[in-house]
Amino acid sequence: MNISLSVNDLLACCGFMCGGGCNGGYPMFAWRYFMHHGVVTEECDPYFDDIGCSHPGCEPEYPTPKCVRKCVNGNQMWRSSKHYGVSAYRVDSNPHNIMAEVYKNGPVEVSFTVYEDFAHYKSGVYKHVTGDVMGGHAVKLIGWGTTDDGEDYWLIANQWNRSWGDDGYFMIRRGTNECGIEGDVVAGLPSTKNLVRKVISEDDSGDASL
């Protein structure tokens, strides 16, 4: 199945369980939210750029969207649009174990420390050189490789926007735990089907009677 899940649901509705919305959070708890509460489809609750989280240097900053628990399409039910994870787990920080996980099950989520020079990344293999700490950040590690001059790297999808970095992606040095990138790796597996039981009724708040 190829389903696009709602960023808005997780960002707005996980609440204090996951962290502070646009002010940051904890990846493992987000995966557990996916397991226990499910996430609706992007079609049900799309992500609106005009109220989304900003990136360094992007103004103005916006607050975390409110959790409304309603599909934008009135013909869809919130609860019946939920999809669930079946597991959430940490991956050992050994680079070979991370590569094995990506090879077997697909992308993983990694956290790292953001420094000022990262905000100005354009291309090449990133290594922290200068600047103060700006905070922590979680991103999607999708692959790895080695440059022509022998430098190992991770290939990562950022979520700031496509105008940042290399069309929204970046490479970072692999095998040295650069900025802590290999120290906190989490992942999960989705269910191959929607696990919601048959919905008999759903009130205006989005709560369902089963």
CATH class of the largest domain: Alpha Beta
Helix amount: 10-25%
- The side-by-side strand order for the widest beta sheet comes to 1-7-2-4-5-6-3
Q: Could you say what the CATH architecture of the largest domain is?
A: Alpha-Beta Complex
Number of strands: 9
Beta percentage is 15-25%
> How many whole angstroms does the radius of gyration measure?
18 Å
Please name the fourth-level CATH homologous superfamily of the largest domain: Cysteine proteinases
Oligomer class: single chain
Number of domains: 2
Order of helices and strands: HHEHEEEEEEEE
Looking at CATH, which topology of the largest domain would you report?
Answer: Cathepsin B, Chain A
Q: What class would the helix/strand composition place it in?
A: alpha+beta
List the SSEs and their pairings.
Layout lengths: L6 H7 L13 H10 L48 E7 L3 H11 L2 E8 L9 E2 L6 E14 L5 E6 L11 E5 L11 E6 L10 E2 L5 E2 L1
Parallel strand pairs: 3-6
Antiparallel strand pairs: 1-7, 2-4, 2-7, 4-5, 5-6, 8-9
Tell me briefly what this model is:
The chain is of the alpha+beta class and 210 residues long.
Describe the structure.
This protein has 210 residues and is of the alpha+beta class. It has 2 domains: 1-89 and 189-204, Alpha-Beta Complex (Cathepsin B, Chain A); 94-183, Cathepsin B, Chain A. The chain has 3 helices and 9 strands; from the N terminus they run H-H-E-H-E-E-E-E-E-E-E-E. It has a 7-stranded mixed β-sheet with strand order 1-7-2-4-5-6-3. The radius of gyration is 18 Å and the shape is globular.
